[in-house]
Amino acid sequence: MEEVRIDVRNQTPERIAEAKRSSELCFKINHTMPTSLECKKLIDDLFNNNIGEGTIIHPPIFTLLADKIKIGKNVVIMNGFQCMSAGGLTIEDNTMISLNCTIATNNHDFYERHIITCKPVYIKKNVWIGVNVTILPGVTIGENAVIGAGTIVTKDVPDNAVVVGCPAKVIKYLEPEKFNS
Question: Would the CA dihedral through 63, 106, 77, 123 be positive or negative?
């Protein structure tokens, strides 16, 4: 994955507008009755209707660049989801993300701190992400993987792997033939 570098002192008008739009919609979502049709419409607006059928997102949520996020079908995202999405985030079908998870697709250059370094995060289908997980830039989470509670994911996770810890380590592999299609 190629890194993209952005100087936050010289942002494009489009990026500034998207950050404002996303921030304001997150505020509205987080202050609206979570089970209301109004909240669902605000969430659809936040992600530019780029959410698959059957997906449920529970507020509160926060992201500054929602236009960089693509969410598949039948995804469940629980309360407290935060995403630094400048690098792009793809969440495939049937993924479950538990409470208080953070996905960071960008970081700052160690020496030029006004430069953010961006790499996409890709979460393949049928992934289960536990409570308080942090996923760092450039990571791909493999199909059917399970990320244990409190894990910090710094590197790619293979298909069917169960990972835990800080940093994440594979503790076992699941049998893919046991999954319902």
Answer: positive
